[in-house]
Amino acid sequence: MWARTRSGLALRARRWRFRHGIAARQVAIRSHAPWWLKLLVAAGVMALALAAARGIYDAGRGWVGLDVDDMQAEVVSLRERLSVVDAELASMRQQADSAHSSLQIERTAQEQLAARIRSLESENARLREDALIFESLAGAGSSGIEQGFKINRLVLEPDGEAGRYRYRMLIVRQGGKADADTKGSYQIVASIDRAGQGATITFPPDSGAENSRLTFRHFQRVDGVLAVPKEARLLSIEARFLQDGQIRARATASL
Hints:
The protein is an alpha+beta fold. The chain is about 50% helix and about 30% strand. The protein has three helices and eight strands. Strands 3, 4, 5, 7 and 8 form a five-stranded antiparallel β-sheet that branches. Strands 1-2-6 form a three-stranded antiparallel β-sheet, with helices on one face.
């Protein structure tokens, strides 16, 4: 029994040393805090961290020369200046359009005036030709020249478009007494060069074509346009006046 009591005391002593001796577990004593206080403290810490981050950002922006407020003010100023420049540009464009329209009107008026002058000069030249023709006809009638026909003033010139040419001529009845109208027709025979090969083209192909018939008393002025293939080169033309299929007068012209 004494042995049991001794072993029990030894066990209790071992347990006491385990709990209160050097090998005993460490115990921390902490005060209990409510959850809302912890949340408030955490919010305060986050606010302080954000404020510190903002301060560091502003400081860093100032160090590198980036001031957002100044940049925004400059952007506003640039937009205002851009609006002013756009307004000035629109005004200048309007003035330019007005000046261009005025210039076009003046240019059109000048072209019309030049065309009118050319028309009057051409008409004046024709009147002079008519006067000379009447004088020659009067002299020929009194001198007893045998009646016949002649082609005067045959002119050939480009018409401004490739392959197109304009011709002019004057068919005159000379000698004799013109008691009745003269009827006939005319033809234009064009000599061309096509790739080194010579050829002729007749305008119109039929000497009795409606657009080639002529009726006149003393003289007849004829003008028209002929077209040759674009790959061909016009060398010369021969104008013919025909009566009853017979050639009564002819003349040639070249470029």
